[in-house]
Amino acid sequence: MVSTIGRPVQMHRLLESLMHIEDPGVELIVVDQTDDAASARAAEQFGLPFPVLTTRSARGLSHGRNVGLALASGEFVTFPDDDCFYRPDTVRTALGLLADSRFVGVSGAQLTVDGRPSMLRWPGAACEITRGNFYRTAISSTLFVRRSVVNDVGGFDETLGAGSREGFMSGEESDLVLRVLEAGHRLRYDPSLVVLQDEPRDDLPPDFSQKMAGYGRGFGRLFKQHGLSRTRFEALLLRKRVGSVARSMRGKADLAAADRAFIRGAREGFRVWQ
Asked: How is the beta sheet containing 28-32 ordered, strand by strand?
């Protein structure tokens, strides 16, 4: 299920990567939040070898995903971003891992085409996802989870994620993961499951620091909302601060500024959430 806005080129790459999928029961749901619905039309006309459902919605990533969830019929759901794409074995690997009935979902690593980590430094070994490691083992683009469980815990919190009116621009998948765990279910991480995406730091957009501040707000709120360790929260921000200093020393002032923006956003998100 893809919630998309204004990325027709990236969406085309995702659609191309789905052409090889032959696994039974697969469907694609595209929720287009662009005024011209160009990505929805492209998906309908692409000739994918499985059913494609499209719709439109008001803006907001989590809202779009909830709209898509209402249309889904598969046993499992996944939430690729419109700028990521799949390896030939992505879906088959996920389904193989999901055959272990002890777990209701699985997440994997997000890498660049040349094998570098994208967004996060992913663990090299498989492990169970917990309240202590969710922030480095689960991201929406690699998360495959039983649809009934997602519905049972209430879907995505629409005050979190890109397009959030409250400014909490991240954390929607982490919030979902934490609610699944709090409901008594088990999730696993396995690096053999790979989704591809460009590394955003390779080509920084002008508003990158602003985005990182919004991501930080969501991160800070998440820790407070779910009663996670304040010590762990402070340790993660300290690591981010040390990284900012190191980047400054290497002449990467823009990345250092983005780190500082994330820290400020995280503290604000933690402070303002009631």
From this structure: 2-4, 28-32, 52-56
